[in-house]
Every structure is written in structure tokens, then in C-alpha cells.
Design a protein that fits this description.
Blueprint lengths: L1 E4 L5 E5 L3 E6 L2 E2 L19 E6 L3 H4 L1 E9 L6 E11 L2 E10 L11 E6 L5 E5 L23 E5 L21 E4 L3 E7 L6 E6 L6 E4 L28
Antiparallel strand pairs: 1-2, 2-3, 3-4, 5-6, 6-7, 7-8, 9-10, 10-11, 11-12, 13-14, 14-15
Pfam families: GSDH (PF07995)
Organism: marine metagenome
Protein name: Glucose/Sorbosone dehydrogenase domain-containing protein
Length: 239
């Protein structure tokens, strides 16, 4: 589901059915890395999603994982971030630092991609959970009171930065950095400029490569070049 290089030269590999693996000297360890959540929402696109090391991994040994967290009765799930300290073949001191307000019974569009920028802020992509409201304008990706279809920006311990664009807005969650997204499957920081980019799965067509800027609305689903999988058009005529 994702791969990440460590400062030690080892590579971590996430497998969606709840496994974190490690490659040392070109050889895949047959055993999974222990310590991360044993209970997760695996159905559909759920499960373990992304893994990234802390920018100061060489000193603090911290790694971050996104996964589909189930509710108490397993009927819904949401994108969640945990972190822990990598020691040998285990991750210890695991703590949850972000639970998105994106609970839904659908098993798709969790996204869960992460990146750190050059200032050490953590960006987390939360998919729109394939919510299907009757009216496009009512889609949760256009509603700032939840995290569906957003990219959030956090301190490395999950705290909300004071300069996030929606701080102080009564009808917006403070973690949100950008919104109007569908299902981001890539999130990366340019190693030279430090800007954050996202690649986003559209429906049938409509895939996007976006420069992620604070407070921006990226349009989904009101504005899209995509169409429904059955060939019908879903965007409003005026757009």
C-alpha cells in the first residue's frame, strides 16, 4: 500500500491487511513489524494505508502510520494517524495523534497519504469516503465541519498549528488546510521548493495533480473533468 525509506537505509512496506514489513540489505524480513493497531477496518480500501518517518528519524526513531479505524460496533470507519518509536522489529510507545471526523459506513476513499514539509508540519489526506449526497453542493467535501475530502496540517504530535487557514472559524474544523478533494493517492513535498503536491483520483477521468495551498477549495464534486463510471455527467451545467 506504501513504502518509505528510513535514514538507516532500511525500507518500510505497508500491506493493507494490517502488516508493516521491513527490507534490510535488499531482503524482506518474513516477519511483520509489531506494535501498530491490531484492530482496524480492512474491508474495501480500508486497512493500513501509509507510513512515513519523522524528519528527525535518525534522532527520535519516530514513524507515522495511517489506517482505517473502526467504531465500536464495526459499522463505520475513519482515517486515523498513529505514531510510535521504531526499535528493532517493533514500534513502541504507539499513540494516536489524529482521528479524522470522516466516519462513514462506506469502505472506500480513505486516502490516508502523508508528507512532512520543510518546516516539520505533517500533512494528512482524508478521502471523501465516497459519500453520495443527492445534491452536489451538499457533499461533505464542501462542508468544513468534517474532514471528508480534505488535507489537514498538524504539528508532529497532532496539535493544530496556530496559522492554519480556518483557525477561529466557527463553522470549520481547525485542522483543515485545503478541501474539495475526492481521493488523494499521493502526497509529496518538493525537495527543492518545499511546496506540497497531491495527485488525486477522479471518477472516470478527472484525475488531478494539485499544488496544495492554504484555504483553497479544489472543487470536488461541484467542479470536475470526470464523469460517472456509467458515462453520465454529474457536474452542474454552469460549471
Amino acid at each position: 500500500w506504501s513504502m518509505a525509506w528510513l535514514a538507516t537505509g532500511e525500507m518500510l512496506i505497508v500491506e493493507r491487511p494490517g502488516r508493516l514489513r521491513i527490507v534490510r540489505d535488499g531482503v524482506l524480513d518474513p516477519n511483520s513489524v509489531g506494535g501498530f493497531p491490531a484492530v482496524y477496518r480492512q474491508s474495501g480500501q480500508g486497512g493500513f494505508m501509509d507510513v512515513v518517518p519523522h524528519p528527525d528519524f535518525a534522532q527520535n526513531r519516530l514513524v507515522y502510520l495511517t489506517y482505517g479505524k473502526p467504531d465500536d460496533d464495526g459499522s463505520m470507519g475513519t482515517t486515523t494517524v498513529v505514531r510510535g518509536r521504531f526499535e528493532g522489529d517493533r514500534v513502541v510507545g504507539v499513540e494516536e495523534i489524529f482521528e479524522s471526523v470522516a466516519w462513514h459506513g462506506n469502505n472506500n476513499h480513505f486516502s490516508g497519504r502523508m508528507t512532512f514539509d520543510h518546516e516539520g508540519y505533517l500533512y494528512v489526506a482524508v478521502g471523501d469516503r465516497q459519500a453520495l449526497p443527492d445534491l452536489l453542493a451538499d457533499h461533505p467535501a464542501q462542508d468544513l465541519t468534517n474532514h471528508m475530502g480534505t488535507i489537514v496540517r498538524l504539528h508532529d504530535d497532532g496539535r493544530v498549528p496556530s496559522d492554519n487557514p480556518f483557525i477561529g472559524h466557527a463553522t470549520a474544523l481547525p485542522e483543515i488546510w485545503s478541501y474539495g478533494h475526492r481521493n488523494m493517492q499521493g502526497l509529496a513535498t518538493d525537495p527543492i521548493s518545499g511546496v506540497v503536491w497531491s495527485n488525486e483520483h477522479g471518477p472516470r477521468g478527472g484525475d488531478e495533480l494539485n499544488l496544495i495551498l492554504p484555504g483553497r477549495n479544489y472543487g470536488w464534486p461541484v467542479v470536475s473533468h470526470g464523469i460517472n463510471y456509467d458515462g453520465s455527467v454529474f457536474t452542474l451545467d454552469e460549471h
